[in-house]
Amino acid sequence: MRSLPIAIAAAIAVATFASGCSIGDGTGSVIGTINAPDCWTGKFDLRPNFFVADPYRNTLQLRIQRGSDYQTFSDGLSILIDDVAAIRGTDETPSLYNKPLPVGMPPAVMPAGVPIQVVKDPAIIHAALYLQRSCSSQNITLYASEVVSLAEDGSCDGPLPTEEERRRECAAAPGGRAPKTARSTMTFAQLFNGNPEEASAAKRLNDASYDLYLADPREVCPGGIGPPPRCRGHLTGSFHFYFERGRPAQPFP
């Protein structure tokens, strides 16, 4: 599977800091259900206590995590924003604050061997739940999908289709009974402007709520033809924390 740009599917260096600094402090929640039979099935509560923001040009990655260890050894929610200015607004465009914005997989996240599809208006917010601590024997990462198929009861808790059933669903002729669907959204009240030297606390604040439906990119129908991928989890929550600059960890001696 192709990895997300910059940082979602790659480990981020954890910031180190002198005693007394507040890097990583914040409040938030990640609550819902997960349907990953090889790792976790049922109710889920991340109880995050580590919050960081990593700016790069006009992009921003947020990491909402349980514990301050490296991402490869932790459970957490990684959020990548492709266009900070679009959400904050500019002199020419109004902000997108307090509006539910779509959250989806980047076009580059496709199963191996499946061509990258051209997306006319892709989501600029992406999110992935990683469970590297809870599922250390499995590489479990589920991605927020702009639209997912729900079980017949309208939940994400039903039995997952077999590989053969999924192929039949993808090959079914258009016009058949459409499954129930749900969409991922995130609503920002404030967003850090990406300037590491920013002195204004208001411009360093990250404050948002979200409603995310997770999927496995390997279950996306080739070419986008067929129903959306089956829902593998539903998470709701929020976060509120300030960007605090710290010395980056040094991975090599």
Strand content: 25-35%
Low-pLDDT runs of 5+ residues are 1-21, 249-253
Profile the largest sheet. Answer: 11 strands, antiparallel
How do the SSEs run, as a string of H and E? EEEEEHEEEEHEEEE
Helical fraction: under 10%
- Briefly note the structural class of the backbone: mainly beta
Can you tag this structure with a few keywords?
2 helices; 11-stranded antiparallel sheet; two-stranded antiparallel sheet; 253 residues; 6% helix; mainly beta; disordered C terminus; disordered N terminus
What does this structure look like?
By secondary structure, this protein is mainly beta. It has one domain (27-242). It has two helices and 13 strands. It has helices spanning 84-88, 163-171, and strands at residues 27-36, 40-45, 50-56, 59-66, 75-81, 101-102, 125-131, 141-144, 147-149, 181-183, 185-190, 205-215, 233-242. It is globular. Mean pLDDT is 82; it is low at 1-21 and 249-253.
In short:
By secondary structure, the chain is mainly β. Helices cover 6% and strands 33% of the residues.
